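Mods, move this if it's the wrong board.
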Amino acid sequence: MTRKHLLSSADLSRDEVEAILDTAASMHDVQRREVKKIPTLRGRTVINLFFEDSTRTRSSFEIAGKWMSADTINITGKGSSTSKGESLRDTVKTICAMAVDALVIRHSASGACHQVAQWVDASVINAGDGTHEHPTQALLDAYTLRQRLGSLDGRHIVIVGDLAHSRVFRSNVITLGRLGARVTVVAPPTLMPSGIGDWSARDGFATSWDLDQTLYAASPGDRPDAVMMLRVQRERMSGGFFPTEREYTAGYGLTRERLTRLYAATPDLPILHPGPMNRGLEISAEAADATSSAILDQVSAGVAVRMAVLYHLLAGETEAAA
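Not the wrong board. Structure tokens:
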């Protein structure tokens, strides 16, 4: 893979996605070592520039860089001069004037990372931009599913929840489609993105407003091989997208009752959630903590996948991975 930036899941071909996932498998082995350190990015400097709160993404990028011997520095929006009125352009150009090699950016504005990539010489990795995309999350989700299911060709993945505000969903339909999976997205009409009909026709995924019909399809071939629940992003909502939380859970939550019925047909069905979770809203405690839950596997995979992304962008194909 010869690429300078990772801005969108659409940037990656199937071969590039598989190359990253294969590298991530090697990087995952590093996590199991007593000494979790390889010299691959020694001398490189990676800046994590986060203008939105994050636990999993920022921590995993920091760990990934440090385990690969890069100098990794975290900067938050409140800790940068943007809080004093400095523009994003001046902030990133100032940082890159210090000869950094990569910027990992999370920003509330869709398209911010694409804009930054035009301003700087450093590699830019999109760690989530507004409601647009989150490509490394989709890669780690694909890695987790591949570890559980093997090849994703023909596998049916159901994604449920707040699609209107989800950058994770947008990246996942692209990445999972690249790997040959069949994707169905489910949400109430008020949480379906505008124009999703044209989009689904273009990118080859199905849409539904009926969760139970999707989960318990009459034909075994139409039933899900994995279910991903998405967080209800109340902080991005300014209006009434659903009447009450109880009604949302009844219609679109992975409740204990739905889990029991799913397990009757597929006892080891993988359950995913990108986090953070609203327990009792989009996902019950029983589903989050189920034996087949892959939620903590996703967190573990996040470090390995982000190590793989940094490797492919900064180390080059000729460097040894370990």
